[in-house]
Structures are given as structure tokens and as C-alpha cells.
Amino acid sequence: MQILIVRLSSIGDIIQTYRAFYQIRFCYPEAKIAWAVENCFKGTVEALRGLDEVIALPFKEVKKGIYRPIWDGLKKLRKRSFDIVFDFQGNLKSSIVLASVSAKIKVGFDRNGVAEWPNLFFTNQKVSVPNTLPTYEKNLCIVDRVTQGKRAAFLPVRFYLTKEERESVEVFLDTIPKNLLMFCPFSAWDQKTLSIQDWIKWLELVRNDWAFHIVLPYFSAKEEKEADEICKAFRHVHSWKIPSMAAWQHLMRSVKMVVAVDSASLHLAGVTDIPTFSLFGPTLETVYRPSGEKHKSFQGSCPLGVIFERKCKRLRTCVAPCLKEIDIKALHRSFTNHILDVLGKREGEFPPFFRDKNIEPILI
Question: In the Cβ-directed half-sphere of 69, how many Cα atoms lie within 13 Å?
Fold first, then answer.
């Protein structure tokens, strides 16, 4: 059996499709499974265990006026035939992929679930799911429509890790203390995160109460600049450039907790089974936060009073401050309660340097 998964972008959404992928693998253990993804995001799937093929498509080149690479990629796809195609994207780009391949079953979301309605012309099975479901659960509903089988127990995702990736992480860990938290303050959407000044204020409170060292992973040059600004304010905060998803996950498994906004870092920690504390503004915590007691979040309120059931429809255009006006002390109290609860329940994990208010703070 030949199966194609279509989830082209972005990193966070691809990560939230992992559970659906493993459910497909569970139901079709002998199948050959391929995953169609945008070329710039192929690193999010190429190290997945159990995936047979990555079909990387250069859609981003079209925005630069370069059409030949995507045309060549789609031309190769037209020669392919699959038994089942699962479309977890539901937009015009995934429609192009659906139109380029032949398959007995092409399953996707119905009118209420697709991101762009023309996608409906290219699926022959359409699934209706409540819009309030978490994203990973919506994807599983797509799989259930075809398999009609029982759900597989979801185990933590473990990427294939090369020797070079492992060594690069170990070299970094050798340079810093091992009592670590990972803070991931960066997002493609400014409304989803605090200002750099507020991150510094919060990290100051964390430093006064705990003896954790902090790792700040970053991707881009812009993120590197902001990470450096935060690091300059502290001696216990260390920036780290992310070389690959597998290396990032390997480092993540060495920390006590991941603190993040609604971004790829949060979802990666969720599927890796690392405790998280997350911040939400223009998206709902109940929809996008990883499930389970080890995952807690802080939901900011919309300064314009907008109510939404998944994410704010004004996200792409609104200039409201969202998380920029939250009470940092209230945020820190919520974080402290969670870290005490989670780490206090794990034998041997309770932070040894928690400082009582009667003890003089130690500068780190």
C-alpha cells in the first residue's frame, strides 16, 4: 500500500501532525508512507522514524518569481499513484498537490475545516470535526475516517540522531551547568510573545527564586540578536543556535522544563514528553497547549475584548499589544506553582536550589 501525507507547513503545524502519522503507521504497518512538505521545512520530517520518503516541494520559490523548480517537482508527482492521500493542510497549496497525484482515496476536512474553500474540489472524502478540538486531535479524526480502527497509544517522538548532531549537543552541554530550563521566547508572530524587556524582567524573577541555568535556542539572525540582548543581562542565560530538529530535541531532553509561547518549540516539547509552561495571547491555550498534567499555560486577555474559539482572526493584521501588557509577576506566580507541582512529583527531579524567602538570594 502507498500512502501520502500532505502537510506542507509550518513547523508547528507539521509537528502537530506527528500523532496522525504514527496512527497511520500503526494501522498500516507494511505500507510505504511518503510525506509532502515544503522544501524549507523538510528538516521537520526527514528524521522521523517510520517514514519512508520525504517529497520536498519548493513552493517558496514561487514568491520570488521562480517557477521551474515547483513545476519540475509537480511533474514528478503526476507520475505517482497512491492508495490513500491524507490532506491535513486544507488550502490552495495542498490542493495543487492533490490535483497532481492519483489516489483511490483523498481525504481532508469539510467546508468548516478547510483553510481555503477551493480545497474541497480535490478531496473525495470530507471529515467534519469541531473547531474547538486541539489541532492534533483534528488530524487524528481525518485518519479515523479511513482506518476506523482503535487509536494507538502515543509514545514520545524520537528523531533519528546522527553522531555529529549528538556530539554537537554534548559539546555545548559540557560548557554549562546541568540544572537547566529551556526558554523559547521567539515567534513568527509578534503578538504571540512578550517584549524582550518583559522576558528580561521575568528571567530576573526566575533568577531570584531558582538556581536554574537557562538555554535560549534560536534559528534566525533576528532571533540571535534578541537572544544576545537577553544573554547580556545575565550570566546564567546561554544562547544556542539550532542546527537541526533532531539536535534541538536531543538538547530539549536534557532540560527540566521548556518555557515557550505558542510556537514550534512548545509543540516539539509536547511530542517529546518534556514538561512545558506556555504563554498564549491571540490563540487559545485549550486548543494549542500540549495535553496532560505536566503541561500548563498562562492565557493573556485581548486588549480589544475580541473573543475567539481557536485563534484571533485579526492575527495577521492586528497591531494590538496582546501579551505585551500582561502582569509579569502574575505570570511568574503561575509558572512557579507549575514547576513546583511538576518537578516536585518526580523523584530526584525536584530542584535542589529552590530558595526560601527567608534565605538571602544568591547571584548567579
Answer: 14
| Grid coordinates of 253 | 531532553
The H or E element spanning position 99 is helix 92-100
State pLDDT tens for residues 16-68: 999 999 999 999 999 999 999 999 999 999 999 999 999 999 998 888 888 89
Q: In this predicted model, what pLDDT tens digit does every residue of 279-289 receive, in sequence order? A: 999 999 999 99
Residue 305, pLDDT > 90, answer no
Query: Is the bond preceding residue 263 a cis peptide, omega within 30 degrees?
Result: no
Residue with cell 482572526: 313
Residue 88 CA from chain centroid, whole number: 15
Region for 327 from its dihedrals, namely left if φ exceeds 0, alpha if ψ lies in -120 to 50, beta otherwise: beta
* Start-end of H helices in the chain: 11-15, 18-27, 60-63, 68-77, 92-100, 135-147, 163-173, 196-209, 221-231, 245-252, 264-272, 285-288, 328-344
The domains located in the chain, with CATH, are 2-147 (3.40.50.2000), 164-344 (3.40.50.2000)
Query: What's the pLDDT score for residue 160?
Result: 95
In sequence order, what DSSP letters do the residues of 174-216 get, joined into one string?
A: TTS-S-EEEEE---SSGGGS--HHHHHHHHHHHHHH---EEEE
Cα separation, 230 vs 202, in Å, equals 11
Nearest Cα neighbor of 330 from 147, 194, 143, 163 is 194
Any idea how long the chain is?
364
Beta strands in 268-358 (DSSP E): 276-280, 295-299
Contact 45, 75 (CB under 8 A): no
User: Quick one: pLDDT at residue 347?
Assistant: 46
Given CA atoms 127, 144, 290, 91 in this order, what sign does their dihedral have? Answer: negative
